[in-house]
Design goal:
By secondary structure, the protein is α/β, with parallel strands linked by helices. It is built from 8 helices and 6 strands; from the N terminus they run αβαβαβαβαβαβαα. Helix 2 runs parallel beside helix 3, helix 4 runs parallel beside helix 5 and helix 5 packs parallel to helix 6.
Length: 288
């Protein structure tokens, strides 16, 4: 019987086939990893506390979208009187109506506040004190992350909005917080504070970089948190700084490089999940 001689596959064909298998396996592993990471982030961050906030007044800045909006919804669901401090009052009022309808809580309203203007902050506090006789929880959530710009008063905008505006707002509301004690101040921070550098000789940040400006503002808010807690904790005003984690918010549309918004929506936490972390800090009776 004649033997059949088989020709070996060309070397290039074998290499191409192997490359396809390896590439497909690698891509599948990456996609599976992203999916599992997403599920881990979505289902492991829970606020199991059933504590309610009936009779409590909460003020939250930057609540028309993102983490602020999700947090406002969660607090309204627990019975709090929630006041949204918003730069866009028309949008703020629409968000307030939506939250009120979804949570069946009629005590959700919006007030105009521009943290880039010190005069506007003073006007807001005056109006707030005329309308409200207590403030149990202040959430400094609003933030700016974008190209170089200045506040109305001439400060670098990221530093002015993220830190100076919230510092001034908190300072002016201190008497109401003390009157409502025990009360809480929650400052939104970020783990990017570790990259921040505070140079008081360069507050305008001459060599502007978005990430440098952002990390500097978050470092400043951490210093403020520590000092506020040291000075006011004896008055039963407790101050906390919260890093909600990597969250897929609209702010990330301006994020340079790898973590632009579309991929981040797959592997970052949702706004609702991040709100659970903040809610726990607000309602836990074990934090002082």
């Amino acid at each position: 019987m004649d033997s059949v001689t088989r020709k070996p596959l060309p070397a290039k064909g074998v290499q191409s086939f192997t490359l396809v298998i390896i590439s497909t396996t690698f891509l599948s592993s990456v996609l599976l990893g992203i999916f599992l990471w997403r599920m881990y982030l979505r289902w492991t961050v829970k606020c199991k506390s059933e504590n309610r906030l009936d009779g409590k007044t909460v003020l939250i800045t930057g609540a028309t979208s993102g983490i602020g909006k999700a947090t406002a919804h969660e607090l309204a669901l627990r019975g709090a009187r929630v006041i949204l401090a918003c730069r866009n009052q028309q949008l703020g009022e629409a968000v307030a109506r939506t939250i009120s309808k979804k949570t069946r809580n009629g005590d959700v309203l919006a007030l105009y506040l521009d943290l880039a203007s010190l005069q506007c902050i003073r006007d807001f506090v005056k109006q707030f004190k005329e309308k409200e006789n207590k403030l149990n929880i202040l959430i400094n959530n609003a933030g700016y992350f974008g190209p170089k710009a200045a506040t109305v008063d001439g400060y670098e905008r990221t530093f002015g909005v993220n830190y100076l505006g919230h510092f001034y707002l908190t300072y002016l509301l201190h008497d109401l917080l003390m009157k409502s004690a025990p009360s809480r101040i929650i400052n939104l921070s970020s783990n990017y504070y570790v990259k921040g550098k505070l140079d008081f000789n360069d507050l305008p940040l001459v060599n502007y970089d978005m990430m440098d400006a952002y990390s500097r503002s978050k470092l400043a808010i951490l210093h403020f948190t520590v000092e506020a807690h040291r000075m006011w904790s004896w008055e039963a005003i407790w101050t906390f700084s919260v890093h909600p984690g990597c969250v897929a918010t609209s702010v990330l549309r301006r994020y340079p490089g790898l973590f632009e918004y579309p991929p981040s929506s797959c592997d970052f936490k949702s706004e609702q999940s991040s709100a659970k972390t903040l809610t726990l800090v607000k309602i836990s009776t074990n934090l002082r």
